[in-house]
Amino acid sequence: MDSDETSVDRRASGAASGFGSLIRSRRKVLKMRQDQLALATGVGRRFLIELEAGKPTCQLGRSLLVAEALGLR
Predict the structure, then answer these.
(1) Nearest-CA neighbor of 37 among 8, 60, 12, 71?
(2) What does the alpha-carbon distance between residue 15 and residue 30 come to, in Å, rounded to a whole number?
(3) 11-37 burial, b for 16+ CB within 10 Å, e for fewer?
(4) How far apart are the C-alpha atoms of 37 and 5, rounded to whole Å?
């Protein structure tokens, strides 16, 4: 079972990293700073830093709010 959990953790980490990269890229395309996006979405700048860095434990609901604010579905 440990190898299954490790595989899931690796996949989750990879997905979080990819999502964070997508958020960062879209924010930059829109020429927004992290503090501007934080203000627009009601999340903290620290949360955005962690989200863009691919932290796998970022809250899903807040992450989706940020994506929605950037026009991502």
Answers:
(1) 71
(2) 23
(3) eeeeebeebbeebbebbeeeebebeeb
(4) 34
> Which amino acid, residue 36?
Q
Confidence grade of residue 2 (pLDDT, cut at 50, 70, 90): low
Q: What angle do CA 28, 44, 72 make, to 5 degrees?
A: 40
CA 21 to chain centre: 7
Residue by residue, DSSP assigns 8-51 as: HHHHHHHHHHHHHHHHHHHHHHTT--HHHHHHHHT--HHHHHHH
Rounded to whole angstroms, the Cα distance separating 49 from 55 reads 9
Residue 65, exposed/middle/buried by CB under 10 A (0-12, 13-18, 19+)?
Answer: middle
Predicted model pTM: 0.88
